[in-house]
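for ur thesis appendix - Stage II sporulation protein M. copy paste whatever u need, i formatted it the way the template wanted (i think)
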Amino acid sequence: MKQKIGQVIWNHVQEHSALYLFITVLFVMGIIFGTLTVQSLGYAQQHELYTYFQQFLEQFAKENFVDPGYAFYQNFIHYVKYVGIIWVLGLSIIGLPVILIMVFLKGVFVGFTVGFLVHQMGLKGFLLSFVSVIPQNMVVVPLILMMSVISISFSLKLMAHLFRQNRVNRELSLAKYVSVMALAAVILVAVALFQTYFSPLLMRGLL
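the 3d part is after this line
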């Protein structure tokens, strides 16, 4: 079963290798842009952001800072909204540019967050980002990239089907497309659980 799933994923990546390369490069460009944005901030802006961040860390150090159930709900909804919007955009041809913008912005957010922590806190900032930002993004980012490729591919196929008026094949593709989002939601549950219950423990170990 695992080998079959792995083969399906591998065949999918090979079939859309050019699109994956383009999306990955776009995401990396976002990371670079986000990192450079940290350097372009003035001293006053950096100091203000760091002050807010320090206040957050002080509150976060308290055990009952946020109710875990509420935190899990917020984390899960945040990820599902982001991936879900990309999924919905794939249902429309005009949504393609927005998908690309969202991939780029995700890279900007990751680059800015990690860059800011490292710039302000040095090694401790890197370790803090390593336990608070990187772990969940090691799953979320590939999922976003894959969903973006699938959405773009589906949108292009939908456009072709509309011109060909091939209604049966379009309905079969839509069923598979829905199942992909359902699988993504299950994966995001695991990500939200990790971010809610394990990531805070790792962060408190560094504070």
